[in-house]
Write a structure and sequence with these properties.
Largest sheet: none
Order of helices and strands: HHHHH
Strand content: under 5%
Helix content: 55-70%
Oligomer: single chain
Radius of gyration: 24 Å
Number of strands: 0
Length: 101
Amino acid sequence: MRRTAARKKEYPLSMRLPESDIAIIDRAASLRGRSRTDFMRDAAVRAAEDVLMETLPIRMSRAGFKAFMKALSEPAAPVPELVELFERAAPWETGGSKPGN
């Protein structure tokens, strides 16, 4: 009996884009060290996943929902790193580095 390797089906996708869009895509793909096809596929799949995640309902048990609501209703605890960050002066307020220097 001859075994055949399982093949992944791939489907072609064709798009018409203006030259300016292709230039942006190619530049970004190059910066990531990816081909245009790989870059476009990853970007399209990521965008599709984002849309699906926005529309999927979140399901949890009654006990889980009760714990979730309790956590939301409690006062927020300060995060030391964020407190320090917000107390620090911004570079433009302290005469920090300027573009070109």
